[in-house]
Amino acid sequence: MPVDIVVGGQAGDEGKGKISAYLASKNDYAYSIRVGGPNAGHTVFYKDKIYTLKTMPSGFVNPRTRLVLGAGTYIITDWLEKEIKITGGGDRLIIDPNAVIVEPRHTKEEQGDARMMGKIGSVGTGLGAAVRDRIERKKLRFAKDEPRLKQYVQDVPELLNKALAKGRSMLLEGTQGMKLSLLHGEYPFVTSRDTTASTFMGEAGLGPKYAGDVYAVFKPYVTRVGPGPVAKEQTDKKLLNKYHTAGREVGSVSGRLRRVGEFEMGLAKKTVTINSATMLAITHIDLLDGADISKGTRSFTGSAKKFMATLEVLCRTYPNPKVALISYGPGLFDVLDLR
Ligand code: IMP
Ligand code: MG
Questions:
Q1: What burial letters (b/e) apply to 44-81, b meaning 16+ CB within 10 Å?
Q2: What angle do CA 51, 54, 185 make, to 5 degrees?
Q3: Do residues 213 and 254 lie in contact, with contact meaning Cβ atoms separated by under 8 Å?
Q4: Residue 237: which residues within 8 A CB-CB, separation 6 or more?
Q5: Which of 111, 139, 329, 332 has the fewest CB neighbours in a 10 Å radius?
């Protein structure tokens, strides 16, 4: 399929980075594209190293895949330069001239805004302030204006659409999740952009005709790093501790301990519908009992089995996605691939 899209079905941190990296390794896409801002941390465990990527596409794990940042990407240049170094992906990186630079004044402004930092729980990277300046048509710096990024700048829509015409495939990695969508989420406890598949396509400069599989990523529970609704929030200190340690449920950009709640079926159905998800990717199944998958075993017991059974409701939600990937550990290949 031409453009496979990875979206979050909850409040971000579903494991989109891991799923994207896995898909990029297996599917050998020509391009791995990321859109959105540096408020989203995507974590990839690869070759005994942990990469927390705020800007570089997770598809960097495949050396044959070129890495693309679209016009809907917001960049903190210092952070991107660090990620170029640690991933070694600089020689494969392409940046749209209209990607926006988040400047220190944006970050300072957001961090100084008590309401944004308190009530909304902003990660404080400055993304919101940069998006606002763009909407207000204020003076901004774009990737094309940044001498440190000049070497990477290229017309992304032209490049990608020419590749599509030649039948090349690509992966589009979205950020955050349904609860945090500015359009469809739990306003005002949302981020400053929409977080659904169609918007990601637009942010990359791709038309809807080229959408391939849409992978909706879910955990068997919901986490939220900031304020806002969480169904049946977990308050048991011992259980929370398990999530924060074994489940690594600590904000990768914010450093905050994530709140934990139960799997929200209504939200999951909405995710399938609005994104027209064709594939379900489940991560963190290892946090449930009955999911001790030694490689090759495909059967679950206990809570894991029960959870997998509830997914049938999602598979009956149009367009009837299939359970495609089940991630049972942080490693890149700790995945049961049922495609
Ligand atoms: P902002 O987008 O940084 O302003 O944050 C707005 C809300 O979205 C806050 O509750 C953040 O914690 C949350 N948020 C933003 N990005 C992410 C993410 O990538 N993962 C999880 N929560 C996020
Ligand atoms: Mg994250």
A1: bbbeeeebebbbbbbbbbbeebbbbbbbbbbbbbebbe
A2: 125
A3: no
A4: none
A5: 139
- What pLDDT, in 10s, does the model give residues 107-130? 999 999 999 999 999 999 999 999
- Rounded (10°) angle between helices 265-275 and 302-315: 40
Q: Is the pLDDT of residue 1 over 70?
A: no
Active-site residue, from 4, 13, 194, 286 = 13
Pairing of strands 322-327, 279-282: parallel
Closest ligand to C-alpha of residue 258 is 1
Q: How far apart are the first and last CA of the chain?
A: 14
**pLDDT tens digits along 247-296:** 999 998 889 999 999 999 999 999 999 999 999 999 999 999 998 776 56
What is the arithmetic mean of pLDDT over 41-52? 95
CB 26 within 8 A of CB 337: yes
Residue (of 73, 176, 198) closest to 122 by Cα position: 176
Does the bond joining 330 to the residue before it have cis omega, within 30 degrees of 0? no
Assess whether the C-beta atom of 24 lies below 6 angstroms from ligand 1: no
Q: How far is the CA of 165 from the centre of ligand 2 (A)?
A: 33
Distance from the alpha carbon of residue 283 to the mean position of ligand 2, in angstroms: 13
pLDDT value at position 118?
A: 97
**122's tokens:** 């902003």
Residue 338 has pLDDT above 80, yes or no: yes
> Which ligand is nearest to the Cα of residue 250, counting in written order?
2
| β-sheet bridge partners, residue 36 | 73
Q: Which of 4, 28, 42, 96 is catalytic?
A: 42
